[in-house]
Design a protein that fits this description.
The protein is built from 25 helices and 31 strands. By secondary structure, the chain is α/β, with parallel strands linked by helices. The protein starts with a helix and ends in a 9-residue tail after the last helix.
Length: 1029
Amino acid sequence: MSEYSMYHSLGQGEQLDPNDPNRTSQPAPPQFQPPVAQQPYQQQQYGQQQQYGQPQPQQYYGNPPPPGGNAPPHPAGVAPGFANPAVDVGAGAGAGLASQMAGMSLDGQHTARRKKKDRHAFHTVEAPLGSSQPYNGIPPTGTPATAFLNADPSVTTGGQFLGQPASPNQFPAPVNAPYNPASPATAAEFAARTGQSQAPASVSTSGAGGVSPDDIPSVPVSRDIPQQYYLTNVYPTFERHVPPPATISFVAYDQGNSSPKFTRLTFNNIPASAESLHSTGLPLGLVLQPLAPLQAGELEIPVLDFGDQGPPRCTRCRAYINPFMMFRSGGSKFVCNLCTYPNDTPPEYFYATTPQGVRGDRDQRPELTRGTVEFIVPKEYWTREPTGLNTLFVIDVTQEAFNKGFLEAYCEGILSALYGLEGVDDTEGDEESKRQIPPGAKVGFVTYDKDVHFYNCNPALEQAQMMIMPDIEDPFVPLSDGLFVDPYESKAIITSLLTRLPALFADIKNPEPALLPALGASLAALEKTGGKMVCSLSALPTWGPGRLFMRDDGKYPGGEIDKKLFTTEHPGWKKIAEKMSTAGVGIDFFLASPSGGYLDVATIGYVSSTTGGETFYYPNFVGGRDNAKLSQEIKHTVTRETGYQAVMKVRCSNGLQISSYHGNFVQHTFGADLEFGVIDADKAIGVTFGYDGKLDSKLDAHFQSALLYTTASGQRRVRCSNVVASVTDNARDCMKFIDQDAVYTIIAKEAASKLSSSSSTLKEVRQVVTEKTIDILAGYRKNFSSQSHPPGQLVMPEKLKELSMYMLGLIKSRAFKGGNETSDRRVHELRMIRSMGPTELSLYLYPRMIPIHNLNPEDGFLDEKTGHLKLPPAIRTSFSRVEPGGVYLVDNGQQCLLWFHAQTSPNLLTDLFGEGKDSLNSLDPYNATLPVLETQLNAQVRNMLEFFRPLRGSKALTIQIARQGMDGAEYEFARMLIEDRNNEAQSYVDWLVQIHKGVQLELAGQRRKEDSEGSSIASTFSGLRPSYW
């Protein structure tokens, strides 16, 4: 990596080895004290916790084990903290899959030899590497039953960290104060930060010998340990080069390299050649979420105005000024970091440099010190006069929408989004502070059934005027003025209109909606300014131009769904999507299918995915249960940061070139800019790169994304994010700086694109994902494994230990799973994967599961030491973890289930839901929120839900009750337990066996031979096919 001092210490001081934990002579960069975020979680403690029977004590990350002598004595001859020697469980070699997997262990005996001068090691951010929590898959012979269902999780054989001495605290070094570049790490802190060993994880998958299946890599542990660390430490973006896991809460300090919330590279140390990259099996990619939300405590993105000249740019490659451009000739020239072209510094931007070549005003220039900035751009960047965001609510008022309560819930959701739920004191002075949408933004309303109705909400009127547009063959806008209004000037009219709408259409029962004409008329209203539509639909649009038919009857001959059902074949829908994207208009759909019926999401959702919008799909909308979720999601889509009429360009260093983009956008030709009708805070794009030459390992590789868009308040801006990565000739060094979240995000987006844009079937895409996983692990074993491991061990790179689990989650997701799944749900989730960011995708592939029946008294409340909420550890998503009488919160980012075991304690139910709710039968399955009660358990669970709310993406966090043996939602609970055998795919244990077999075949040189045999068989039939070329 280029030295920290070059960019951030004004070039002073000698070039020291940044890896040396005892370095002291480098001058201190400016000290950073992050503002302390206000803590919303401090709740009054409501007395002592009710004891439900005998709750099992839990091991909590970052804390000493509870007193009372839970830890078992160590067997003779076994050092504390090390796993027991292998035990022969007596199963033969051919005893099947169960006996093969009876023993799995992370081999803690191997320690990777460190090079004396490894210049990148100080970037490693992981806290000490933990083995997983107990995995109770298939018990080895002779294991007592109690160890598997109801045992104390803290009583595990050996310490929590294999290969490290047992410690009462999971962080051997004292937890640091918030990051201060001036204070170098001590040797102990350095060891704690990097993990004591860079040894790869190895899992024994053969023979009957082994310790236990506990030690296969655990996703919950890989999230919980860094979470504890980042509650008391910030993430400095330039000094450490492996970002924290995407699902955790952390504060990033932008030091000139963009925060991982906006940009994530798969490699933070890039191989110098295409051959080296190929040997890893991994993609070289960048995940971009340009408008990602910031966390409390993070610095706002600086907004810079350079006047009519615009921001300084490279004259050759058009890159924007950034912290990595170097100034020469006393400041009169700046050298582009992407194409190395020396540009003349504009006279108005000139400032003299110091003898070290650093501008004297560097610290006063955010564009030279921050990785992500915004430039206000002059008129040559405009295509039309920018205005505030015009949002048009397009409301379905057909019979189906009224009958199921969807119309009423949707209108209430709009009111909540615009004005909030507390409309109690409407004093004038308070109006600005209650404003939910930015100043300058306006709203309009359109309803449709067989006709399209526009509403004039001019504040001068007493009530809204309705104008009907009956000509659906050639739609037009009957209003010239009054359609778009400021929602706060016309508050009384809008409130009255939305309150009366359900009653207004109660008697006019048109069952068939004419959706395409309504979209055409709405587009005509927004064409001149650009903007956004928020549209509801509750029945298949079977009226007028663009009418759709029942394409999916649920019968799939041959078992696989027809690929035609994944896309639209209707020219009218394709045409309007293209028109909207060109006009800078995007659309968010809220689709509620009638009793789980067919809505043709493939065709309707095509419009939102092409224009950069989002589809919120309710496969079985129930009025009372889903109102809260619908209302929160409408509020989120209206209030989240949104830009429209957007264009994006990604640039990279010489020697690299862009090979593909993955996401929801329009790209007319390859190499052209990406066009978005709208882009919002939750949307992410995947970019993959190839080589057009060999990179110089003495220079860094640079990447810059530039998003030109109009803000909701009506300013034309460029959001610029810059990322830097070191380059190495030794590909083994790359394996230490892999961002696992970026890797599986890129692979998932590539798989979704492959399914929707090529002729590949679902089965073929699943096979591609499996082969990719085998390629990565076999490549590591073949090329980079420093020790000789026994053939029976599956060796995983340290930074990719959990990759196999995420890949299994991808194969089990609704988008790719085998078996029967309606085309609506499948295509909806397929497009969702293409547009979601790493945070949402991580939860989607591996849900968060937390037991709430055995919480410690301090869980879910403010931790005095850290100032943050104290969280209990998550557990593996497997039914072997479920205890009798247990209650579990399972959240996959799309829905959150509260699952109750049949033997749940009545006291627990009363504490959670209030008096009179003391049995499972007394609970209301349509209850979507917890009541606010003055009981400890109730407060704990509500606080945890609030903590997780911003860590999940665009979907609202409401609970759905699933009672064992009573509710249909229990099927969804079973589907989320992805470590078990379900979703037409194997369990985690069996999957690792399959991957290991593939790796062994690859190492023996037999896997490719099998593939080529298959292709030769196919080639014998090729003469039967007509030749097309």
